[in-house]
């Protein structure tokens, strides 16, 4: 007879397997109907529905997300051929300019979110800037802000971008037939292990060097370096890429906790509205710049979308856009924003403390 602890562990494992199978089934259905990014969007929406309705409340292990990130990042790096790198250098001014434009849009949205949701500016900026929800929440706690609204807003932003951007592009360009959906060719196990080994080595090295988001940036750098040398690794087979997307989609969907949304009140509406505004602003700028630069509007919209680099790289691949260039847009934004977010937030926090003191407080009651 198993011990109580063993029985509980088995029950938890069975429930985790059930959630992943449910997500995989939703991904298969999304692929059957020809949805863009089906193995990400399907599990995301299905898992979110389980958690929002309270059917499931178990925690998806955070350690599962790096598995999906390593797979996606190492595959994205394969696109960085020598010719691709030469193209990226030629577009450097555009990459930097669009990164700054996206940051400015985030600042405008943060000011609106602070007013509508009654958040202090520190929390509003952390909720609106395109960055990792985990890193934003950690920074919120550091400055005595409630991390709940920050996590909610960041999760709504990423999920909305992942779902709305590819669907909108499909609706404008036309929904392709199911047999036209792009898949990667089936390859042998040795090629898969080689690319996975490169990705894991890059992830471990980046983690040891304390690089932000090491499980994406590390494998991406390692795979890109190998490809830039002209020794391009083979792509993962479609089944491996689909499993990685299921892992990421289930994890993201599980962050839609019923308790978090129930306690958020009008913050939910404010987050959705400001996210849509952010998407509208970045998309308008992208379309205008695409006409001026003579580039595809789809490419520019994906490049400036305020979503995660992992999800946008997948979307670009699925929609047949230039994965290397779109990834470069997002990485440029990451390397410009991430080192500067701490001092920007510190400056905003100090401003609020001074303003609060002038209003008669002691500066310690910021929410």
From TrEMBL:
One of its GO terms (biological process) is regulation of gene expression. Keywords: Membrane, Monooxygenase, Oxidoreductase, Plasmid, Transmembrane, Transmembrane helix. InterPro entries: AbrB_dup, AbrB_fam. Signal peptide: none annotated. Pfam families: AbrB (PF05145). One of its GO terms (cellular component) is membrane. One of its GO terms (molecular function) is monooxygenase activity. The chain crosses the membrane at residues 12-33, 39-58, 70-89, 95-114, 158-177, 189-208, 215-232, 238-256, 268-289, 323-345. It comes from the Bacteria. This is Ammonia monooxygenase. It comes from Sinorhizobium sojae CCBAU 05684.
């Amino acid at each position: 007879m198993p011990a109580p602890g063993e029985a509980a562990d088995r029950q938890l494992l069975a429930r985790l397997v059930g959630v992943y199978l449910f997500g995989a089934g939703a991904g298969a259905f999304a692929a059957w109907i020809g949805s863009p990014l089906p193995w990400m969007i399907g599990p995301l929406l299905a898992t979110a529905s389980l958690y929002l309705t309270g059917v499931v409340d178990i925690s998806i292990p955070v350690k599962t997300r790096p598995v999906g990130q390593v797979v996606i990042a190492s595959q994205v790096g394969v696109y960085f051929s020598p010719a691709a790198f030469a193209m990226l250098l030629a577009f450097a001014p555009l990459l930097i300019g669009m990164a700054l434009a996206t940051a400015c849009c985030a600042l405008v949205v943060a000011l609106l979110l602070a007013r509508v949701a009654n958040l202090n500016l520190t929390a509003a900026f952390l909720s609106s800037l395109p960055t990792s929800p985990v890193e934003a929440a950690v920074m919120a706690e550091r400055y005595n802000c409630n991390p709940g609204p920050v996590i909610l807003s960041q999760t709504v932003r990423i999920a909305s971008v992942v779902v709305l951007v590819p669907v909108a592009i499909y609706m404008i360009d036309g929904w392709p037939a199911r047999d036209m959906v792009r898949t990667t060719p089936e390859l042998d196990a040795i090629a898969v292990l080689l690319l996975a080994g490169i990705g894991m080595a890059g992830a471990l090295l980046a983690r040891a060097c304390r690089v932000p988001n090491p499980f994406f940036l590390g494998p991406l750098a390692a795979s890109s370096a190998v490809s830039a040398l002209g020794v391009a690794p083979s792509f993962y087979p479609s089944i491996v890429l689909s499993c990685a997307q299921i892992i990421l989609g289930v994890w993201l969907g599980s962050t839609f906790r019923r308790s978090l949304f129930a306690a958020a009140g009008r913050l939910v509406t404010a987050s959705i509205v400001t996210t849509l505004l952010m998407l509208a602003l970045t998309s308008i700028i992208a379309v205008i710049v695409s006409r001026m630069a003579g580039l595809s509007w789809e490419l520019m919209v994906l490049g400036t979308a305020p979503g995660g680099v992992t999800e946008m790289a997948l979307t670009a691949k699925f929609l047949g856009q230039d994965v290397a260039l779109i990834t470069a847009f997002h990485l440029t934004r990451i390397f410009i924003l991430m080192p500067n977010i701490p001092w920007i937030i510190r400056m905003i926090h100090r401003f609020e403390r001074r303003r609060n003191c002038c209003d008669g407080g002691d500066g310690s009651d910021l929410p």
